[in-house]
């Protein structure tokens, strides 16, 4: 009752240089203060406040129309906030047009100038700043080396593959050494294999150049693998901000729990409320759910318990347990064999379908679970997460 | 593709019985004949317009060439024959004097140069007027674009001649333009607008504006606007971004529009005749005069052929640009 999961987790942790968001003294590099953006009656961004720290690779994650791109475009200066302020490195960006902001953007379509060579595309921004010619040459070569495109410098964009174009776009945005690099769905146009490879490349490049990245993506996997932290957005609002592990293990709402990965949610009400544990009666589950830490709320209050599929154990035999908590029985209706893991869809007595994953540890299993099997599903008392909305 | 396949559609026309069979047989002969000419399937589709051009362009052109190589004569038709049968010998006379004449008489050379000058200036003016219009239409709200384009094309629904006549009445000394200018107090007495080179420029710009706007619009409309955002993002002011990005990318449209205006403007007859002055010398007018006033068909034909050769060069440039553009679009 007194301690929430968040508090338990955060208390022992000391802020270090790699996690500036944990340090209350640290000054954010990008500060978004109560920013809203209205298009007529439509509220694209609704009173968003967000701090991003220097050197972060921060992602804005959400479905289409959640306002993530609008927020990014306000950082670039293509849109003006209806209300609220944006500070970059302490400077108010309100009246600063895009061409004067210390910000560069990598566009979703890459927006490479089709009538210019790779080299000219990359040099374009430096020419605008009247950088001396020999310095332009040097910096263009440098950045093309970074993205491994030196031998393509004389080519036109249409003579490049999708992955190469993506790297030209990155080079063009990096060459000006902006304080902030914005990436709009940077990997959206690449095929799956290339996307995975490029994810790591991007992260490596970001670490090498040390520029703060803000990335927009709808792909939760991308946000999880690449970001230092990310915000889950929905309907113009930020639902949750945190590191990938924080958001995954400690989602704060059903929306963010369901958006990141998959989760089994059981609706119920609290029956036991102690400082070190709580019990929830969940008719859908057909059992009482034990939570091994105190939760906010009182007896009788309505909550949802979320359990990730990989934190559940599935077996044909009744597991030996000390108590009856967290034990479900049901019937396997669907199995998806993915090679490394299998996903089991189990229908409970209440009619609710849940999802359980199990690693395929051995190649041959005598006791393997198959369609129609009656199974038992169990999870530890620390696996469940309690959600209030 | 084998020739056999092409018998099938004809075979379908078979109505049965002996008569039908003979139809099919006739068709078979025709098809075989077309096949032998290399005209089957795709070839036939391309062949028809080529045949059209052969019949209505190339053959008349050969007639004109023939007249250009003859001599003027008081007869009907007013020129001599190129061939003559005399005592079993075929005599062919090719008279090149007409060409020699049009290149030696300064009238024709001056008219050519003047036509090119007037066409070039009008093309430039059309571009200057058309570009902002095309730009505005291409950047207007999507739902506005079609009606705005419609308005550009609308004048075409009235006869070209009537529209030029309308300009005559607008531009004359007691016409609307002069009276408005006098009423505002800009001028005290009517200024001469009609029958000047200015009126010709005005007429050409007015008449050919849609030919400039349409290709410009199509290139500007296709342009990816995120390119301009990218330019701005990289530190380029919007005005400069226009020069560095929009203008170069609309170059194919500029070239296409300019050629579509320039080519017909060089040979323009109606506009200089009706709006131009007596000293507005254009090759189209000279051509008319040679044919109908002087009735010197051979010289007129020579002028026509020289004009054609003069225009073939820009037409070839146009085709080259168009081919390149289509190639670029395929990518």
Notes on the protein architecture:
The complex is a heterodimer of chains A (about 400) and B (about 325). With about 400 residues, chain A is an alpha+beta fold. Chain A has two domains: about 240 residues, P-loop containing nucleotide triphosphate hydrolases (Rossmann fold, 3-Layer(aba) Sandwich); about 120 residues, OB fold (Dihydrolipoamide Acetyltransferase, E2P). In chain A, the strands form four sheets. A six-stranded mixed beta sheet of chain A has the order 6-7-8-3-9-10, with helices on both faces. Chain A has a five-stranded antiparallel beta sheet with strand order 13-12-11-14-20, with no helix packed on it. Chain A has a five-stranded antiparallel beta sheet with strand order 15-19-16-17-18, with no helix packed on it. In chain A, helix 3 runs parallel beside helix 5 and helix 4 packs across helix 5. Chain B is an all-alpha fold. Chain B folds into two domains: about 90 residues, no CATH class; about 230 residues, MetI-like (MetI-like fold), CATH 1.10.3720.10. Helices cover about 75% and strands about 0% of the residues of chain B. A two-stranded antiparallel ribbon of chain B has the order 1-2. In chain B, a hairpin with a 2-residue loop joins strand 1 and strand 2. Chain B is globular, with a radius of gyration of 27 Å. At the A-B interface, strand 6 and helix 3 of A face helix 10 and helix 11 of B.
């Amino acid at each position: 009752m007194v301690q929430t999961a968040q508090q338990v987790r955060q208390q022992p942790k000391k802020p270090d240089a790699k996690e500036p968001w944990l340090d209350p003294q640290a000054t954010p590099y990008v500060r978004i203060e109560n920013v809203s953006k209205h298009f007529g009656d439509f509220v694209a961004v609704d009173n968003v406040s967000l701090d991003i720290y220097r050197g972060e690779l921060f992602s804005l994650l959400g479905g289409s129309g959640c306002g993530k791109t609008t927020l990014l475009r306000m950082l670039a200066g293509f849109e003006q906030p209806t209300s609220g302020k944006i500070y970059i490195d302490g400077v108010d960006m309100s009246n600063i047009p895009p061409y004067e902001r210390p910000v560069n953007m990598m566009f979703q379509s890459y927006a490479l100038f089709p009538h210019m060579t790779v080299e000219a595309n990359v040099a374009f921004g430096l020419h605008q700043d009247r950088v001396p010619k020999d310095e332009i040459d040097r910096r263009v070569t440098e950045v093309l080396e970074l993205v491994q495109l030196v031998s393509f410098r004389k080519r036109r964009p249409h003579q490049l593959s999708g992955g190469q174009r993506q790297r030209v776009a990155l080079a063009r945005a990096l060459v000006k050494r902006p304080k902030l690099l914005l990436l709009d769905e940077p990997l959206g146009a690449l095929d799956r294999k290339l996307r995975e490879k490029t994810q790591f490349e991007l992260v490596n490049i970001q670490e090498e150049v040390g520029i703060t990245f803000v990335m927009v993506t709808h792909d939760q996997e991308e946000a999880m693998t690449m970001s230092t932290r990310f915000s889950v957005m929905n309907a113009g609002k930020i639902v949750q901000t945190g590191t990938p592990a924080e958001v995954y293990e400690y989602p704060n709402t059903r929306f963010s729990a369901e958006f990141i990965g998959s989760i089994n949610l059981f609706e119920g009400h609290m029956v036991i409320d102690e400082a070190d544990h709580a019990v929830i009666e969940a008719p859908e589950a057909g059992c009482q759910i034990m939570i091994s830490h105190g939760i906010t709320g009182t007896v009788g209050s309505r909550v949802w318990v979320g359990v990730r599929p990989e934190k559940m154990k599935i077996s044909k035999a009744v597991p030996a347990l000390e108590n009856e908590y967290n034990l479900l029985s049901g019937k396997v209706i669907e199995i998806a064999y993915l090679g490394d893991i299998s996903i089991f869809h189990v229908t409970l007595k209440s009619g609710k379908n849940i999802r359980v994953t199990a690693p395929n540890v051995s190649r041959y299993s005598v006791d393997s679970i198959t369609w129609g099997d009656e199974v038992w599903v169990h999870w530890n008392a620390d696996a469940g997460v309690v959600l209030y909305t | 593709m084998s020739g056999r396949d092409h018998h099938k559609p004809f075979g379908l026309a078979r109505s049965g019985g002996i008569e039908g069979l003979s139809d099919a047989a006739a068709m078979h002969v025709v098809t075989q004949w077309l096949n032998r000419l290399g005209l089957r399937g795709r070839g036939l589709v391309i062949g028809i317009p080529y045949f059209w051009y052969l019949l209505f362009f190339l053959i008349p052109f050969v007639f004109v060439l023939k007249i250009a190589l003859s001599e003027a004569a008081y007869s009907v038709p007013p020129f001599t024959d190129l061939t003559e049968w005399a005592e079993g010998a075929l005599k062919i006379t090719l008279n090149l004097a007409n060409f020699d004449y049009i290149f030696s008489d300064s009238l024709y050379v001056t008219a050519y140069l003047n036509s090119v000058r007037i066409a070039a200036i009008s093309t430039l003016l059309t571009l200057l007027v058309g570009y902002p219009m095309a730009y505005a239409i291409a950047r207007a709200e999507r739902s506005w674009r079609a009606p705005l384009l419609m308005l550009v094309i609308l004048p075409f629904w009235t006869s070209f001649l009537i529209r030029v006549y309308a300009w005559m009445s607008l531009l004359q000394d007691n016409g609307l333009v002069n009276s408005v200018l006098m009423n505002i107090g800009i001028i005290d007495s009517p200024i001469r607008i009609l029958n000047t080179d200015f009126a010709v420029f005005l007429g050409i710009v007015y008449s050919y504006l849609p030919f400039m706007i349409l290709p410009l619009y199509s290139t500007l409309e296709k342009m990816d606007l995120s390119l301009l955002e990218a330019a701005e993002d990289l530190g380029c002011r919007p005005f400069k971004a226009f020069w560095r990005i929009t203008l170069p990318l609309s170059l194919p449209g500029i070239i296409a529009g300019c050629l579509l205006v320039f080519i017909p403007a060089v040979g323009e007859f109606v506009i200089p005749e009706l709006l131009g002055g007596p000293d507005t010398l254009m090759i189209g007018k000279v051509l008319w005069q040679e044919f109908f006033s002087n009735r010197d068909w051979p010289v007129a034909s020579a002028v026509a052929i020289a004009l054609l050769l003069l225009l073939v060069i820009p037409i070839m440039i146009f085709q080259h640009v168009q081919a390149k553009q289509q190639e670029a679009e395929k990518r």
